[in-house]
Amino acid sequence: MDIQAIVSLDRTKCAVQCNSKKRILEIISGIAADNNAEVEAETVLNALLSRERMGSTGIGNGIALPHGRLPGLANVIAIVVTSDPAIDFDAIDNKPVDIFFTLLVPEEQTEGHLQTLALVAGKLSDKETVKAIRRASTSDDIVKALK
C-alpha cells in the first residue's frame, strides 16, 4: 500500500488548537466521521481510546500514530492532524506531540494493519518529511509533504 492511497486533503487538518490527548482524539474522530459515511465519531473515539489504554501510540519526536480496527469499515482510512501547540500524549520519550497520523482499518485486516503502520512509521522516520509537515501552514502542505 502507498501512503498516497490513504491520505486525502479532506481528512487532513493543520495547526488544530487543543490542549489534551482526549480532545485531539475527539477531533480526529470527528474528522473521520465527517468524511466517511461508514463510521461514527463515537465508535472511532472508543476504538482509539481503547488502543491508548493498552499503551500510548506516541512514538517519540513529537509524533503519535493513534490507530484502531473498526467493524464494517471497507478500506483503510488515514487522518493526519497537526496541533498548535504540541500536547502531552504520554509519548515514549515524554515529549509533547504535534503530529498525529491516525489509521483506522477494517476489523478483519490484522496483517494489513501492521503493514500499513510500518509503512507510515517508515515515512515519518524521514527527518525531511517531518520537517516539511511541521513547516506546513495548510492541510495541502501536509498532504504534499507526505507524498
UniProtKB/TrEMBL annotation:
Domain PTS EIIA type-2, residue spans: 5-147
Pfam families: PTS_EIIA_2
PROSITE patterns named in the record: PTS_EIIA_TYPE_2 (PS51094), PTS_EIIA_TYPE_2_HIS (PS00372)
InterPro entries hit by this protein: PTrfase/Anion_transptr (IPR016152), PTS_EIIA_type-2_dom (IPR002178), PTS_Nitro_regul (IPR006320), PTS_SugarTrans_NitroReg (IPR051541)
Gene Ontology MF: a single term: protein kinase activator activity
Superkingdom of origin organism: Bacteria
Example GO BP: phosphoenolpyruvate-dependent sugar phosphotransferase system
Protein name: PTS IIA-like nitrogen regulatory protein PtsN
Provenance organism: Salinimonas iocasae
